[in-house]
Write a structure and sequence with these properties.
With about 170 residues, this protein is of the alpha+beta class. About 30% of the residues lie in helices and about 25% in strands. The longest helix has 20 residues, at about 150-169. It starts with about 25 loop residues before the first helix and ends with a helix.
């Protein structure tokens, strides 16, 4: 297990669609472990393989330590509710920046486990938000693309300012 460098916005890897995983082996387990360590160190509650420069369809989510770690291999959204919720979102690739995003309140998702077993389940609330956010990333859609142009421009400018100032220190 290792903490890997995080790809920073606006790196083009963050806008690339990922490849499905077809090998369920020790290397996949090691990648999931590295994602968990990297996410916790960031800190964050969700991370995808593209966040560390690996274009594979893998995400790790840990809403809190009590709920435990969830690993989703090749996740896809099967259905979305009409009911919408708003939640503050951000990214380990754009630390310090967050904005409210509106998404469906519940979803049905299909994914595989680390051993290749296919699972379908419903998610609601924060888990639904996180899954949609991370699946977007796996599809090459960075979270700021879900914002209005005004909010997106404001978030990008704020991030650029924060990182310019950090580079001076």
């Amino acid at each position: 297990m290792a903490i890997r460098p995080i790809v920073r916005f606006p790196d083009p890897v963050l806008s690339r669609r990922t490849d499905p995983i077809d090998r369920f082996d020790d290397a996949l387990q090691a990648l999931a472990d590295d994602l968990l360590d990297t996410m916790r160190a960031a800190p964050g509650i969700g991370i995808t393989a593209p966040h560390i420069g690996v274009l594979q369809r893998l995400t790790v989510i840990e809403l809190d330590r009590e709920s435990g770690v969830r690993i989703f291999v090749n996740p896809v959204i099967l259905s979305r509710s009409n009911e919408m919720i708003r939640h503050a979102e951000g990214s380990v690739s754009m630390p310090g920046i967050s904005e409210e995003v509106e998404r469906p309140a519940t979803i049905r998702v299909r994914y595989q486990t680390l051993d290749g077993t296919t699972v379908e389940e419903d998610a609601e609330g924060l888990m639904a938000v996180c899954l949609q956010h991370e699946i977007d990333q796996l599809d090459g859609i960075f979270w700021t693309q879900r914002l209005s142009r005004l909010k997106r421009d404001r978030a990008v400018k704020k991030f650029e300012k924060v990182w310019r100032e950090a580079a001076r220190d």
